[in-house]
Amino acid sequence: MTLLHTVRVRHRSLGAALAAAGLLTTLLAAAGPAAASPDPGDSSPGAGSRQSADRAPGRELAPGEIPGQDEIVHSANVKPLANIPDANLKGINSDLAFQGDYAYAGNYDGFTIYDIADPKSPKIVTQVLCPGGQNDVSVSGDLLFLSTDSSRNDDSCNSVSQPATEKSSWEGIKIFDIKDKKNPKYIKSVETACGSHTHTLVPGGRDIYLYVSSYSPSEAFPDCQPPHDGISVVKVPRKAPTQAAVVGFPVLFPDGGNPGAPTNPGVSKTTGCHDITVLPSEDLAAGACMGDGILFDISEPEHPRVIDRVQDNVNFAFWHSATFNEDADKVVFTDELGGGGAATCNEATGPNRGADGIYDITGTGDQRKLVFRGYFKIPRHQADTENCVAHNGSLVPVGDGRDIMVQAWYQGGVSVWDFTDSAQPKEIGYFERGPLTTDRLGLGGSWSAYYYNGHIYSNDIVKGLDVLRLDDRRTDSAKRVRMDRLNVQTQPEYH
User: Fold this and answer.
1) Phi and psi at residue 194, in whole multiples of 5°?
2) Which of 344, 334, 365 lies closest to 448 in space, CA to CA?
């Protein structure tokens, strides 16, 4: 692997440092995502200020109110502690992972490592420039895994966009050695069919497995041929990660999955999965797969087996992600209506579309079923210039049989909500900024919002890393839960 660039940052302004280091051209070479991606990487970030609005002290919204441009508002129980402004010239920050005192933030230009030992004052340790959207990230030990779902001319960190119609094009998984946080080393790539939109780490004994989600094949794409009705499984030997390789492509939809339109108008045809969440303690996984939601058994990691499958052809357009509750008797699926680039948190769209779907898991063993109970959508209407829809979130590990989650909603901000009663979920806290733009639809907001060791971390598409503190009697028990790592799509046992 050639020409991996890292930038060790000692101050807030990166533009001059990047130019002085001769890295400006590399940074600008980041490509947009493959056409298959419904996520908003092929849109331009909103034109609002990249610097955060004044954080002190914020205020609560009045019912039905939309805050002013770039204005910060939040509920009384959520306090913004810090913001590290976006360091990328093009923007598009993506997913987050955590390990010890570090947060790893993906972006379409590579990834950034933050020191979060002091949550009130996070610091950028390293910025790795390695373009290829979405660059979703996970970590295990000294290894970091990066997803590339944009067609590139090769697997290097100097790659440029190249049409997927060309056989030589590359998409897949990149593996980095991160033992030295200031100098990560790119050690291995694994090409996967249709790229890697997202991936999910499945821990094993001597090996790590990655479930690679990708979709939207075409007869015109030599490395992404239909039918694409499953996932790629990558095996990574812990002691020899450079031997990582694809070891299987289990078919999850032998009948082809949801046919989409015209049979089901407004629903995505299933041609793979978008995201998978595993619960290793229960040998379970939940897959959000375009037109289908699935529950499957992962007791044999190389041979996942579907237990149940559900569809919602009335209100769900694109099954995007999944989260188990702590008792493993519920799954929250998200619907990314409009692909993340549309304004769907408004009165016209309504409360049941672009929302979360809450499903109870009933029965035992192979007789388990996903049973729909209710929808959740943020009750705060957003402007028609704000992209807003359900996106990535995690549990707040409160225990005691209560189910509380923190979740990103793009320009809808960060929502904390309670789904202990599956049929009557409710928001209990929030943080958001006003519209980036007021004259046209802009792209921005929180891509991922996760709870880790007492704080909420949000990766904002254009504003950078936000750190929030949640103080609420309903969630205070979570502050006592300390973890040494968190890949949200690999759900731990919290208690």
Assistant:
1) 65, 15
2) 334
Structure letter (DSSP) for residue 380? S
Question: What type of residue is 308?
Answer: D
- In Å, how far are 224, 386, 417, 492 from 488, measured between CA atoms? 27, 26, 17, 8
Structure tokens given for 367 = 């007789």
In the numeric block, the tokens 């070479």 are attached to 29
User: H/E element holding 458?
Assistant: strand 455-460
Long-range contacts of 305-314 (CB under 8 A, 24+ apart): 306/252, 307/366, 307/368, 308/368, 308/369, 308/370, 309/370, 310/359, 310/370, 310/372, 311/258, 311/264, 311/267, 312/357, 312/372, 313/258, 313/264, 313/267
Q: Does the reported pTM lie above 0.85?
A: yes
User: Rounded distance, CA 54 to CA 118, Å?
Assistant: 20
pLDDT in tens, 213-239: 999 999 999 999 999 999 999 999 999
Task: Write down the pLDDT at residue 36.
Answer: 38
Please give the radius of gyration of the chain, using alpha carbons only, rounded to the nearest integer: 21
CA distance 23 to 109: 12
Pair 225, 246: CB distance under 8 Å: no
For residues 404 and 332, is the Cβ–Cβ distance under 8 A? no
Tell me which amino acid residue 454 is. Answer: G
Residues of the chain with pLDDT under 70: 1-44, 46-57, 87-91
